[in-house]
Amino acid sequence: MTGLSPVFPEAVLWDMDGTLLDTEPIWDEAMDALAARHGVPMTPQLRRATLGNNSVDALTKVYDAARLPESGRDFDADEAWMVAMVVKLFARELPWRPGAVALLDLVAAAEIPMVLVTNTMREVADIAIETIGAHRFVATVCGDEVAVGKPAPDIYLRAAEIVGAAPGDCLAIEDSPTGAAAAHAAGVPNLVVPSQIPVAAASKRVFRQTLAGLTVDDLARLFAQARTDTPA
Question: Which SUPFAM superfamilies match (predicted)?
Answer without folding.
Answer: HAD-like
